[in-house]
Design goal:
The chain has 122 residues and is of the alpha+beta class. The protein folds into 2 domains: 43 residues, no CATH class; 57 residues, no CATH class. Helices cover 25% and strands 12% of the residues. It is built from 2 helices and 3 strands. Strands 1-2-3 form a 3-stranded antiparallel β-sheet. A hairpin with a 2-residue loop joins strand 2 and strand 3. The chain is elongated, with a radius of gyration of 18 Å.
């Protein structure tokens, strides 16, 4: 098996998405793929455009929220990201507004896991 970079090759991306869907799966922003015997057998994303958010409940307001969101999206766009993932807790005051902000909910139930590669907790 060899691991190859996708390098934004649209045809490779299409093939990976097609194969993943045929396998009942999907993935966000794959960056590399695995080839064995001339066939794609998997892919992974080294980096997935994901943002997290905090705004003071006392000092924030709708206007400041929109300014921050617009700034965040400008930065993603400047980095060449066509979209991004935004985790949002059901207890967040933003949770019920995510669709109004233009987000599509990922309906597959899953949990996020974190692994530190450093000897201390981040």
């Amino acid at each position: 098996m060899i691991i190859l970079p996708i390098n934004n090759d649209i045809e490779v991306l299409k093939e990976i998405r097609k194969l993943a869907k045929e396998d009942g799966d999907d993935l966000f922003y794959p960056s590399h793929y695995a080839v064995e015997d001339g066939q794609i057998i998997g892919a992974f994303a080294v980096e997935t455009p994901t943002s997290s958010w905090w705004m003071s409940k006392k000092k924030g307001n709708a206007k400041k929220t929109m300014l921050m969101l617009n700034s965040l999206e400008t930065l993603h766009s400047e980095n060449g990201n066509a979209g991004y993932i935004m985790p949002c807790s059901e207890t967040s005051p933003y949770f019920k507004m995510m669709d109004k902000f233009g987000f599509n909910e990922i309906t597959d139930p899953f949990k996020l896991f974190y692994k530190s590669l450093y000897p201390f907790k981040v």
